[in-house]
Amino acid sequence: MLTRLMAMVPLVLVLALPIPTFGFAREAICGNRAPINTLKKLWPALYACWTPPPGSGGMAVTLVFSVRRDGSLIGKPRATYSKSNGDLEMKKKFFASVLEALHKALPLPLTDSFGGVLAGEPLALLFGVKEYGKEL
User: Fold this and answer.
1) Closest by CA position to 63, among listed 110, 108, 107, 127
2) Measured between alpha carbons, how far is 7 from 49 in angstroms, rounded to an integer?
3) For the stretch 30-52, what's the b/e string if a residue is b when 16 or more beta carbons lie within 10 angstroms of its beta carbon?
4) Which of 114, 25, 15, 131 has the alpha carbon at shortest distance from 71?
5) What global pTM score does this model have?
6) Is residue 93 within 8 Å of 127, Cβ to Cβ?
7) Alpha-carbon torsion 109, 114, 116, 118, what sign?
8) Three-state SS string across 66-115, please?
9) 71 with 129: CB under 8 angstroms?
10) Closest C-alpha among 125, 135, 132, 130 to residue 47
11) Which of 102, 26, 20, 106 is nearest to 59 (CA)?
12) CA–CA gap between residue 125 and residue 65 (Å, rounded)
């Protein structure tokens, strides 16, 4: 009975990290085609392609999206959270940088088995930049 209930609840994989302060994103190479078979390898592959625009400290956006078994995008990503400061032009630049990062990283080079696990599941990633001395 419990497994039936678990099957009905959608799986949302979430990683919320302020970037680019963590080393794993800086160590990964954008567009690297090395096979991805774990979440530990997935997140750096996505974040490595992101370069936040200058002056975007304190801004953040969470994107929710799904991929196919082959690592390509299903549908359009959705922003489910945003924290912004600054003018409308800066907000547009920030959001564009996040979408550009996703575009550069896709399609993801998923292994067959990991692609089967992720296929169709919603992935949520928080792209954010800390302001000096403040929490994101």
Assistant:
1) 127
2) 33
3) eeeeeebbeeebbbbbbbbbbeb
4) 114
5) 0.76
6) no
7) negative
8) EECCCCCEEEEEEEEEEECCCCHHHHHHHHHHHHHHHHHHCCCCECHHHH
9) no
10) 125
11) 20
12) 9
The first and second tokens of residue 81, run together, are: 């959270």
Q: Please report the pLDDT score of residue 85 as a whole number.
A: 82
Contact in structure between 127 and 63 (CB atoms under 8 Å): yes
- Give the tokens for residue 28: 């990964």
Number of Cβ within 10 Å of residue 64's Cβ equals 15
**What pLDDT, in 10s, does the model give residues 84-108?**
887 899 999 999 999 999 999 999 9
CA distance 5 to 18: 33
Query: Quick one: tokens of 65?
Result: 């999206």
Kindly tell me if the per-residue pLDDT of 13 is higher than 50: no
Q: Which amino acid is at 126?
A: L
Q: What is the DSSP letter of 7?
A: H
Residues contacting 82, CB < 8 A, separation 6+ = 59, 60, 61, 62, 95
